[in-house]
Amino acid sequence: MAETTGTTGGAAAPEKPREEWTGQVGFIIAAIGSAVGLGNIWRFPGVAYENGGGAFLIPYLVALLTAGIPILFLDYAIGHRFRGSAPTAFRRLRTWLETLGWFQVMICFVIAVYYAAVIAWSLSFFVFSFDLGWGDDPAAFFTGDYLQVSEPGISLDFVPGVLIPLAIVWVLTIVVLAGGVAKGVQRANMVFLPLLVIAFLVLVVRSLFLQGATDGLNALFTPNWEALGDANVWIAAYSQIFFSLSIAFGIMITYASYRKRRANLTSPGLVVAFANSSFEILAGIGVFSTLGFLAHQEGVQIGELENISGPTLTFITFPAIISEMPGGVFFGALFFGSLAMAGFTSLLSITQVISAGFQEKFGWSPRQAALRVGLVTAIVSVLLFSTADGLNALDTADQWVNNIGVVASAVLTCVLVLWVLRRGRELQYHLNAVSTFRVGAWWQVFLAVLAPIVLGYMLISRIVTLITDGYGEYPSGYTDLVGWGTVVVLVVGAIVLTVLRWRRSPDTFTPWPPYPPGATTARTESPEVAR
Fold first, then answer.
1. The Cα angle at residue 194 between residues 191 and 199, in degrees rounded to 5
2. Of 162, 186, 344, 416, which has the fewest Cβ atoms less than 10 A away?
3. pTM of model > 0.90
4. What residue ranges are annotated as transmembrane (predicted)?
5. Which residues lie below 8 Å from residue 463, measured CB to CB, with a gap of 6+?
């Protein structure tokens, strides 16, 4: 079915051939590289331990099958059928939906500016691991000597130890993006993802031979079946799946748009989803084997340990463990090197969403977009997150952009596409027309009913909590400025970018294959569709 959506300016003109992955393997590697990131290593193990241990795997698997994979397939279908970045693809669904695409681009922009900072920290600690540079008190070193954390507030006190590696991260990112999809993003993932897997496997095997490793694994995997009766445990499972798969904020829409017209979508999607979950379980084994060693050394139970998830696990607890374990230098280099590689491949996917949106809106080449978008994003990142307030700003922005921005994006996508526009059957048909693994009516049910209910509950409950209780120990004025201010930036940025004029109208486009099957259109196909 071809839909005429009108134009916002710019005459229709022949388009340059769209960039493509070199093949299915390249796409799968890049998609896994996007999904496997920092959250797999520092978030999943702690969430699983605190929500039923081994029993958590049941709601986790249910969440994967009923929300994670269906929304992943939805992103694939939208990106592949409408052959564009998030703004372009959503606009081709319906003109006014372009704003949702730019909302997703803005989410990626905000995440990119602080995500790069964590990669910079990882690079620094990779260097520190060779001489155990964090000393005898990793907590004081991380927040004091290294980050020089100040009280929450706007700061212009730059921290050279963060600024320099952060600048390096952005230079590398811009260079890769300038190479384009196949020669830049795909090639980088083909190098870094295998290195990440090998390094992390070595790290996990080493952790299994530490004293106390068995106690750590027992703590993680011993099931607490009573936890399955707690609704919060199920919400935690859906939250973990949702945040770890890189879904609902433009990444997989953009990545799928670079696949060839007759490319299989669902089978590679299953590979990506289960590879991501496998890495999370592998991370859980490595992290809790190591925490078991720390508990053994300190003569306490696992439950008595502090800082077992998030940045504090990574940059406080793990350095303390590395200092005490045999061969700690080697272990530390592997751990922080793996963290940096996992973060970098994810950062590439996040910034590619921004780059693709601007390329298509303003007619920029990949190199032009990499330089212009990359430099602006890098400057904002350096100004905000290489200062003494960097940790506070990162923690606050991350809370709002993920729990409100990303979840709202997912709810809006499901409701608008499935309920308002009623395009579920068309997208299901598209998936089945090009894929070997066929999706049935269950896919639409999960997207139209289950996902909006679960994610809507997550969104509303989090908004209420943030309004009534605030966040952490941060002053309300600070969370209003950085937290709610982030939401304002997302919305305003999306509206402004929607209003701006297209260099070349994206509306002279015919989706393929025709829907309903056998339908014809009098419109001349664009070169993109015809080839």
1. 115
2. 416
3. yes
4. 25-44, 56-78, 99-128, 158-179, 191-213, 233-258, 270-295, 328-348, 369-388, 400-421, 441-461, 481-500
5. 404
